[in-house]
Amino acid sequence: MTVRKFKIAGVQLGPISKNTPKEKTVERLCRLLEDAADNQASLAVFPELALSSFFPRWYIDSQEDIDSYFEKGNITTGVVKPLFEVSKARGIGFFLGYAELTNDGKHYNTGILVNNKGEIVQKYRKSHLPGFDEPTEGAEFQQLEKRYFDQGDIGFQAVKTDPEWVDATVGILICNDRRWPEAWRCYGLQGMDLCLNGYNTASNGTSLFGGEENKALRLYHSDLSTKANAYFNSTFAVSVAKCGFEDGQELMAGSLIVDPNGRVIVQAKTEEDEVIFADIDLDETINGKTKMFDFSRHRRPELYSRIVEQKGSIELSFQ
Amino acid sequence: MTVRKFKIAGVQLGPISKNTPKEKTVERLCRLLEDAADNQASLAVFPELALSSFFPRWYIDSQEDIDSYFEKGNITTGVVKPLFEVSKARGIGFFLGYAELTNDGKHYNTGILVNNKGEIVQKYRKSHLPGFDEPTEGAEFQQLEKRYFDQGDIGFQAVKTDPEWVDATVGILICNDRRWPEAWRCYGLQGMDLCLNGYNTASNGTSLFGGEENKALRLYHSDLSTKANAYFNSTFAVSVAKCGFEDGQELMAGSLIVDPNGRVIVQAKTEEDEVIFADIDLDETINGKTKMFDFSRHRRPELYSRIVEQKGSIELSFQ
């Protein structure tokens, strides 16, 4: 049997203080995963960096202190092990974002997809790191992702999951990636029908990253990115927040599940732990993929070369 | 003096019957352009194929009949000449979509940008032709753009306009192009701060192109495409409809002007001739271009190769 219709859960997290031991956070995630399983979800989506406070908001001097936020070695056997055990015991898959420290000393903002047997079936490393390499003097909160993380080196590799669990073609994005149509399109070109994304996004812009953007505008941008890119690629999408006042900084909520027409099916109402659910039918992606967005009939890749040949924008002059 | 703040007009058109002589239509467009000039607009945006009924809805056997919808030779001296004269006399630029037949027999769905002196400063030919090469039996309305038009061969060449008229970097899209983020990004990578688009879009989906999409959903898709791509590239955008019941087929309205945050500044309220206006300041694009969407700092072109190396989608299998 092939499972195209199933229930999916977005597990929004409230704040995680830097003083909370990771074991406690994993316990909290286990309870939420059990909640999703109790509600017959096949897959639960946690946010980006779901095991700790969003540490890139601070300038941290000591590499040892920085590394304490990262998971080293085999994630299935460390502090996160109970989450894999719940997955296997309850037959529910999950997506989890966490900070990954590799054996050769690389630091990534990583996400993994775990199937309903507690097995990792895909890993992704954030491609579009926002923020800065160097701290900004006088800023209340930094955005130092470019300092603490290496750029993701995996690219956008979609994965076809076990059809007896969920028969999906899954693409993974992390936070800021959702604003970059190139990322979605790379997955769309592999037939993605389910996009998973987790985020930690400040509710208010600062001179560093958003200018004069207020909370409503930043939420509008976030929703718009998920809705439009879901439509352009005719895919379901789940975008899930870590939110609320976390160690003094307000992070936006608004976790949502979107259909392949770019419409919101369900959106979180709170700014704390909240599990949202949607019953989805992946066959609803077929209409878009075979008509408006039948790439094989309509795309013009021979005209798109600027997208790969150029990183920044050129400046034209009047002639 | 460099003009970064100015008034822009979207000139929505109601239906144009196939029985209307082109001279009459051009007269109508001249009056609307004068209306825009009376309101101190610097630039007025007409829709796609603004000189005739949307003829790709019919299967037309005779090439002579097809060609009657096209403009041959120098467009500034033919039936459209009065529009260039109003432009020059009133000092207002315009964008116009029309069907272009070249001297060597090519047929394009074309748009031109004309400055405030009645001079053509840029030409664009639609890249993403929707529809089919062959008529579909039993369909009430066809969508035969792929039959009647050659694919645009120009690509996406932005143009910097005379700063004493409007100091803009303009990108031109036609109708279905607005749904393709690749097209916007090619312009965004040239610093586009004003995107002009005209469309003829059926209000209701059919088995041919939209499936079970109703009018509200198709308008949602259209708006979403303009809003999101404007945000992703931090550009103003003007998308203008030809709309209403045209020779029996209902075309959607909803012409709109969008800011670089992807927010609607103004949207047409009717489904007939209606000029909408917005006072825009192109410097509002700078925040996005230098922060969230500073391409030179954040893009990862080395990961995007699938976008140009592949036209259609590949299919993955479970392993």
UniProtKB/TrEMBL annotation, chains A, B:
Family matches, as SUPFAM superfamilies: Carbon-nitrogen hydrolase
Keyword Hydrolase among record annotations: yes
PROSITE patterns on file: CN_HYDROLASE (PS50263)
UniProt entry tagged with the keyword Membrane: no
One Gene Ontology molecular-function label: hydrolase activity, acting on carbon-nitrogen (but not peptide) bonds, in linear amides
The organism's place on the tree of life at top rank: Eukaryota
Domain annotation CN hydrolase: ranges: 6-282
Protein name: Piso0_002094 protein
Record organism: Pichia sorbitophila (strain ATCC MYA-4447 / BCRC 22081 / CBS 7064 / NBRC 10061 / NRRL Y-12695) (Hybrid yeast)
Gene: Piso0_002094
